[in-house]
Amino acid sequence: MTAPFGLRLCEKISERGNLCAGIDPHPGLLDAWGLERTVSGLEKFALSATEVLAAEAAVIKPQSAFFEAYGAPGIAVLERVIAGAKAAGALVLLDVKRGDIGSTMGAYTAAYLSGDTALAADAVTVSPYLGFGSLAPAIETARAGGRGVFVLARTSNPEAAELQKALLVNGKTVAQSIVDEVAKVNAGAGPLGDIGVVVGATVPPGELDLGALNGPVLAPGFGAQGATVSDLRAVFGTELRGVLPASSRDLLRHGPDPRALREQVRRVRSELAK
Predict the structure, then answer these.
(1) Residue 224 pLDDT class (50, 70, 90 cuts)
(2) Model's pTM, two decimal places?
(3) Which of the residues 12, 44, 86, 97 is marked catalytic?
(4) Does residue 97 carry a catalytic annotation?
């Protein structure tokens, strides 16, 4: 039986630090690496990046959309990235941001969180904006199989503030209500719950109360989007327990030279550990 995701994540962070390395085959990055915007270029980029990053980082986060853009051949490359990252000892957090209701959410769950399907990851990102209860199939399946779910709460994109900072009748923001729902699911789990939240590293300190979360936090906005290690500590506390600062472009721009990419990963890991 697979150990709980929260436990596996804590162990991996202890071994490798808490950096979450993104694999985002953005067309601009393919250009920068001197690769064509084709399936062949995608494959070269993604597999080369995985070979370096998955040997160094605790968590690898492929952005599914950039693979899906190439159709079935792109999905086949994503499957190889997932397999390669797992073989190298990294946990795979698949960034798919799925969110739906009933049988449709169940189908997404079957694709990404069930059994040994080629797309099954250690964890996925999901959207709660059809109601937190709509995520029940994903949460239940993930926990039963030793996998995790990261729920969008307060994201780093500017457009999100209007919705996520809106006040509910109970006086809480939408984002805080999502954090509180996740905290209920994680109550009593140890050393860390299996269900996390996505909270941008660029949000103002003190905007959210994460004290009862007892789960991991995926923190986009670190690196290329401007957030520093100091910003991370201001938002999430000095220990960064269970926090996964996510960096993709700031790492990947150092490719295609594998040595330069490896050195950058190690440099960032060292900064986070100080």
Answers:
(1) low
(2) 0.96
(3) 97
(4) yes
